[in-house]
Specification:
Blueprint (H helix, E strand, L loop, with lengths): L63 H7 L5 H17 L10 H11 L6 H13 L7 H5 L7 H12 L7 H19 L2 H16 L8 H22 L2 H17 L3 H22 L2 H17 L5 H26 L14 H20 L7 H18 L6 H17 L7 H19 L2 H17 L7 H18 L2 H17 L7 H18 L3 H17 L7 H19 L2 H17 L7 H23 L3 H17 L6 H16 L4 H15 L9 H18 L6 H19 L6 H22 L7 H10 L3 H8 L6 H6 L1 H19 L2 H4 L13 H5 L2 H20 L13 H5 L2 H6 L3 E7 L4 E7 L5 E6 L5 H18 L18 H30 L12 E5 L23 H4 L1 E4 L3 H14 L6 E5 L11 H15 L4 E5 L5 H8 L4 E5 L2 E2 L9 E4 L2 E4 H7 L6 E5 L17 H8 L3 E5 L7 H18 L10 H16 L4 H4 L2 E5 L1
Parallel strand pairs: 1-4, 4-5, 6-7, 6-8, 8-12, 12-13
Antiparallel strand pairs: 1-2, 2-3, 9-10, 10-11, 13-14
Helix pairs in contact: 2-6, 6-7, 7-8, 7-9, 8-9, 9-10, 10-11, 11-12, 11-13, 12-13, 13-14, 13-15, 14-15, 15-16, 16-17, 17-18, 17-19, 18-19, 19-20, 19-21, 20-21, 21-22, 21-23, 22-23, 23-24, 23-25, 24-25, 25-26, 25-27, 26-27, 27-28, 27-29, 28-29, 29-30, 30-31, 31-32, 33-48, 35-38, 41-42, 45-49, ...
Length: 1273
């Protein structure tokens, strides 16, 4: 590139002493067709061109008086002062022929003047010396105030100028020094007259004939000083011409400067001044000059001065950003005359990219904490936001990522007292929200809500800022979609309502505010379908459209949202007019949104959904396929516009799959296979790089498997298995994420539980059932909540500590913090409320809740966990082990005995999967031919009715026979017998038959009944399989005569318990006995005293130490402190089961409830056996049957290896009988060494004890002896 700064002052006769001129450049005309041209390299000087010239007034050959008066004709007062000064100088002048002064003295003065560079002090001394030599008349008042009087310095300047002739060789240098003195006085005193006089002094220095013979550095210094002086003058008077004079002088100063660093500094200043000139003149050419000068400066500045170079790069970034702003609107092009195709040229985008690059370089140069960091990050963030939003870049993830990091640094370095702190916090929150909408990372939205909460808490004026209220509402709304915390949604609603209330209809963002409010009402309706909520959404949308301007770029999106609310309302109102208006709104929206807009896929996707909904309505009567064809086309366009890395790509693909699924039903046979394949491909699209892909894959895979199963003529069994494999891959992490509350996790498991059963049934279909796969999926879908609790108790291996102690320490800290959250259930620390009366100013306090902190901890925990798993030797650390891995472990092979039977029930089939552990582990299955899904449901309901009529769903101690009418006794008994017979005929006997026919042999003690551990699912989980049999026939089959029964929530829990039993087994156990005969606010349990005395006697005879806590002694804290000291725990008290949140389930002690988390805090290495002599301790939630959400399973998760519980309420008098027989048999077996390694003996001891109770109360009293069950090992 040619330079305009390399012409020396005397190289051109036109640039003589009368004026300096800026060389002219071509006006920059941008050619839209030359998109490959570098925007800066295309600026070329026009040789000999003419144009605007900025003249620099230096004066001509006029007298000094004319020069003084020619500076500014408008400053008459100042000119009068100069004239007065000149008269005073005449009084001081001494004629050349003054007596008493010889030639030697005059030569001495001349030598002093030409000796070399003079500073201010030397100049003052020179004046005083000239007085001593008799060259000046003495004026004490004037000379004594030479450096203090505002006029004195100027008088010295004029005096010296007067005694030196124009052709004096040192005149130029002295005028330069005097000008410097005057400018320094201006900087100190801020007197404009000093600056004016300095400019004249520098001008006279340049006029001197000897200036052209001065050294390049001297010329540079003088031109630099006059340029700076003109810039100071411009700052005071805002005269754009003076800014031009400053630029002109500095450009020539740069040409005379041979020192690279100094020259770079001058170029940097020239660039900044050109930037200022461009702001005033609106001339993009000036901005191009600024860019060129600044880039030249960046090349010349030394690398060892990072501050100067960073400042220069910051200015380059600002210049490019200004160039982008100036060019963006003018350079927008419209392809094919369609507004939807608007874009900007590659050339214009280059300005923004180069500005971002300059900011990046500047940031990397500065050390942390540098004073420039804040402004750099702020400007950098602004440019990134423009790249990601303003130009509509579809894939701006990198921009968004950088933007968040920039504002995070800004927020870190900005004090709360800084006036920009609220704005910077708001920008930081907005950047986090933008990144969340693109990437879907939960941590971003958590941090965004935290930022807004902090902002509103410390800045009360924010409650009156409508845009801040809106942005906080958006952040809360988005967090609700991930957390489903009702407080978030209601807080978002209140924030949006307040913003709409404060903003008048004339507010430029009123439509945007109304749209935000409407979307929040829409979400509230989805989660709480009340008609008034969706009506409110529709009304707000309608108002937003009425107020929107036609040219508003967001109007298309608002129309889209309006149409969506109308379609949702149609689902409940069934008013076809709503659906027709929805289609019209979406059609209109699509015409207004450019294809390059990142929201275009969302808009056309909604159009496709509305068309498909109308097709469903119309097809029943007219079978018109026009709408479904349009729907498929719309969804195809949405997928096409979204690209490969769009955050909602999988949702768009799923919607396309659904549209194709309906289209498949109405195409010719020839097109069916093609349509079917496209639909399956859409459902099965795999995008591991799209954040949040697991949740979408879960939904897509289930939809795919459903379509495949319905159309087996078009697929193979392997295709179905592949779809369900994809589903199960995401099930564990998405259905019950550890960061959610227990209630939310149960809701997720309830939603997806049926799909797990469907997957298992699919695996067992066909001629070659995949039994191992079915067992794997059954295990993955069982007791997930308790599995998560158990995984947190896993030790951090020594190898991890040795590999990275810091990471291991972090993991331990996060694990303990999450365990504390589990120990103190989050719902207990934040009571539920309706939030209908929530006030806006309450929102910050609502946001600071333990649930949010818990989610943050889990996200941090998972990040550390993933870092550990990146190392090959730890890639499976704290991952759920497969069924085969569990069964092939050395312990399971050697010590896990008995049969393990999984039972699964589905609409298509029911099966039993039998696992026989040992050296030759076998996994096989048999179909339960007679057991259908409906049969299982009817049996389960009948059993629940029987228990209700027997009154055994109440607390221990109440008469179980009270609710039964005498005339109904026989009917209830018959129904009870029928249920147990069906269990025998349909479930238990087929399993026993299969074991015998297959010759399956299990490990175990010889000479005793075989042992079966049941793992039922679905409707079978609440049924007493251990009591199955034909009780109508006295000699009929009975399950308890054939085998000993146990139950387990999962295979992993069973094997973990066995391993712990092996480690904890002691010949010298000790017991903690807790009894509550008369708990406050509960029914008395007088027989617990008998139970306690009996147990104490048994333990005393066996010489087993024990600690008894009775009534007032059994407080929560005291029991907690004692649990860790004993291996056996016996609780005889009331129990409270909380099925919605099993961590709230508790035992009623004297001063309050002892919950599972309370036991979890203290149960230690000794915990082996727990006997829960309370009611319904082994009965879970009927809606979450696979989760075993009861106290018995909870005690296993706490660390106990075996637990005895009850499936329904027990009689108070029955418990002591069972307790006495149980402990007597257990101790006997242990003393006779009849308990195998990795066993506890509890199952066989309970079998013996229940038999004793059955003998005493009679076999017919099934509700009395059947509730006692054993869980675990």
């Amino acid at each position: 590139m040619s330079s305009s700064f390399n012409t020396p002052l005397d190289a051109d006769p036109d640039l003589g002493p009368k004026r300096l001129r800026i060389p002219q450049y071509a006006i920059y005309h941008e050619d839209p067709n030359r998109m490959d041209v570098d925007p800066v390299e295309s600026i070329e000087p026009l040789p000999g061109g003419s144009g605007m010239a900025i003249d620099f007034p230096v004066g001509g050959s006029d007298s000094e008086d004319n020069l003084l008066h020619s500076r500014d004709e408008n400053l008459k007062l100042y000119n009068e002062q100069l004239a007065s000064i000149h008269q005073r100088l005449e009084l001081l002048r001494v004629p050349e022929s003054a007596p008493g002064i010889d030639r030697d003295v005059r030569l001495k003065l001349d030598a002093t003047l030409t000796r070399g560079p003079l500073d201010v002090k030397e100049l003052t001394a020179l004046v005083r010396q000239s007085k001593d030599l008799g060259l000046l008349s003495y004026n004490a008042d004037l000379l004594n105030s030479a450096l203090t009087d505002p006029m004195a310095a100027r008088i010295i300047f004029y005096h010296v100028n007067g005694i030196l002739p124009r052709d004096h060789p040192n005149r130029s240098r002295i005028c330069y020094l005097l000008g410097s003195l005057l400018r320094e006085r201006f900087e100190l005193q801020n007197e404009l007259e000093d600056l004016e006089a300095a400019i004249i002094a520098f001008t006279l220095s340049i006029r001197s004939p000897f200036f052209n013979h001065a050294s390049p550095s001297a010329k540079c210094d003088c031109l630099y000083e006059i340029g700076i002086s003109y810039y100071y003058s411009y700052q005071r008077k805002k005269d754009l011409r003076e800014l031009g004079y400053a630029i002109d002088a500095l450009r020539y100063a740069a040409d005379w400067c041979h020192d690279k660093p100094q020259r770079g500094s001058i170029f940097a200043l020239v660039g900044r001044l050109f930037h200022n000139h461009a702001k005033r003149s609106d001339d993009v050419g000036d901005m191009d000059y600024a860019i060129y000068a600044l880039e030249r400066a960046a090349e010349l500045l030394p690398a060892n001065d990072p501050t100067a170079l960073a400042q220069c790069l910051r200015d380059i970034g600002a210049a490019y950003l200004a160039r982008f702003k100036a060019t963006k609107k003018r350079d927008s092009v419209y392809l094919e005359g369609d507004r939807r195709h608007r874009t900007v040229s590659k050339r214009t985008r280059q300005y923004l990219e180069r500005g971002i690059e300059a900011y990046c370089r500047a940031i990397t140069l500065l050390p942390a904490g540098h004073a420039l960091e804040q402004s750099l990050y702020r400007n950098f963030g602004s440019s990134l936001r423009k790249r990601g939003i303003c130009i509509g870049e579809p894939d701006a993830r990198t921009s968004t990522q950088d933007n968040v990091e920039v504002y995070q640094r800004v927020a870190l370095y900005t004090q709360m007292s800084h006036p920009d702190w609220p704005r910077l916090q708001a920008e930081y929150g907005k950047a986090l929200v933008n990144r969340f909408t693109r990437d879907g990372q939960p941590l971003d939205i958590e941090r965004a809500v935290e930022v807004y909460g902090n902002l509103f808490e410390h800045m009360p004026h924010c409650y009156d800022d409508v845009m801040l209220l809106h942005e906080m509402g958006v952040a809360l709304h988005l967090r609700f979609e991930t957390s489903e915390e009702w407080a978030d949604l209601m807080s978002a609603l209140r924030a949006h309502e307040r913003a709409v209330e404060l903003a008048p209809d004339s507010h430029r963002e009123k439509s945007r505010l109304l749209d935000g409010l409407a979307m929040t009402w829409q979400t509230r309706y989805i989660f709480a379908p009340e008609m008034e909520y969706i009506d409110s959404a529709v009304s707000a949308h309608q108002r937003a459209i009425e107020l929107a301007l036609n040219e508003d770029s967001k109007k298309g999106l608002w129309l889209c949202h309006y149409g969506t609310s109308l379609r949702i309302r149609y689902d409940q109102s069934e008013d076809i007019r709503d659906l027709e208006r929805a289609v019209a709104m979406h059609d209109n929206a699509w015409t207004l949104v450019p294809e390059s807009n990142p929201l275009a896929p969302e808009v056309i996707n909604e159009l496709g959904l509305s068309l498909l909904e109308r097709f469903k309505y119309v097809q029943e009567a007219h079978r018109n396929t026009y709408d479904v064809v349009r729907s498929v086309s719309a969804h195809r366009y949405a997928v096409q516009f979204a690209g490969e890395k769009h955050p909602k790509r999988l949702t768009l693909r799923r919607n396309l799959g659904h549209a194709l699924r309906y289209r498949f039903q109405h195409v010719d046979r020839d097109d069916k296979r093609k349509t079917f394949k496209e639909a399956i491909d859409s459902f099965m699209d795999f995008a591991p790089d799209v954040p949040g892909y697991r949740a979408e894959h879960l939904t897509n895979a289930a939809a795919c498997a459903s379509m495949l199963s319905e159309n087996r003529d078009f697929c193979s069994q392997n295709d179905i298995i592949l779809a369900w494999t994809r589903f199960m891959d995401g099930f564990e992490t998405e259905a019950a994420w550890l960061g959610h509350t227990v209630h939310r996790r149960f809701r997720g498991l309830s939603r997806w539980g049926r799909d797990v059963a469907t997957a298992v049934a699919a695996a067992l279909e066909g001629n070659e059932p995949q039994v191992e796969q079915a067992a794997e999926w059954l295990e993955a879908g069982r007791a997930m909540i308790w599995s998560q609790v158990l995984s947190l108790r896993d030790r951090i291996s020594l190898e991890i500590w040795q590999h990275d102690a810091g990471m291991a320490l972090q993991l331990r800290q996060y694990t303990r913090a999450i365990q504390e959250d589990v120990y103190a259930p989050l719902s207990a620390t934040m009571p539920e409320r309706s939030f209908e009366d929530l006030q806006v100013k309450e929102i910050p306090s609502i946001l600071r809740n333990p649930r949010s902190l818990h989610r943050r901890r889990v996200l941090d925990y998972e990040a550390v966990l993933e870092s550990i798993r990146e190392h090959e030797e730890f890639e499976d650390f704290r991952r759920r082990k497969s069924v085969l891995e569990l069964l092939r472990s050395p312990h399971a092979k050697q010590h896990l005995g008995g049969y393990i039977v999984f039972l699964t029930v589905h609409e298509t089939r029911s099966d039993a999967i039998v696992i026989v552990p040992g050296e030759n582990t076998s996994i096989s299955s048999t179909r339960l031919q007679r057991l259908t899904y409906k049969t299982a449901e009817r049996v389960s309901n009948a059993w629940a009715e029987v228990l209700w009529k027997y009154g055994v769903t109440r607390e221990r101690g109440e008469d179980p026979r009270a609710p039964v009418r005498p005339e109904a006794d026989s009917n209830v008994q018959k129904k009870l017998h029928k249920v147990l017979k069906i269990l025998w005929d349909y479930v238990v006997y087929p399993v026993l038959q299969f074991i015998e026919s297959e010759g399956l042999q299990c490990q175990g003690m010889p000479g005793r009944l075989p042992h079966i551990t049941w793992c039922p699912s679905g409707a079978l989980t609440e049924l007493p399989l251990h009591a199955a049999g034909d009780y109508e026939v006295p000699s009929g089959p009975r399950a308890y005569n054939c085998f000993v029964s146990s139950y387990a929530p999962s295979l992993s829990a069973l094997i973990r318990g066995s391993e712990q039993a092996f480690l904890k087994r002691s010949q010298y156990p000790s017991a903690l006995i807790v009894t509550q005969p008369n708990t406050p606010n509960h029914t008395p349990l007088p027989c617990t005293e008998k139970e306690r005395v009996c147990l104490q006697n048994i333990l005393a005879r066996a010489q087993i130490p024990y600690q008894a806590m009775v009534h007032r002694e059994a407080t929560v804290l005291d029991v907690q402190g004692a649990i860790d000291l004993h291996s056996w725990l016996h609780l005889a008290c009331h129990g409270k089961q909380e099925w919605n949140d099993p961590l709230k389930s508790a035992f009623a002690l004297y001063d309050g409830p002892l919950s599972i988390p309370d036991v979890m805090r203290t149960a230690g290495e000794k915990a082996e056996l727990a006997f829960l002599s309370a009611c319904q301790t082994a009965r879970g939630d009927l809606n979450l049957k696979e989760e075993a959400s009861h106290l018995a399973a909870g005690m296993l998760a706490v660390g106990f290896c075996a637990v005895v519980g009850t499936m329904w309420s027990i009689g108070d008098a029955d418990a002591p009988i069972v307790v006495e027989a149980f402990y007597t048999k257990l101790i006997e077996m242990r003393n006779q060494d009849l308990v195998g390694v990795g066993e506890t003996g509890a199952a066989y001891a309970l079998h013996e004890a229940v038999g004793r109770l059955r003998e005493q109360v009679g076999e017919s009293k099934i509700v009395k002896w059947a509730p006692f069950v054993h869980y675990g090992v």
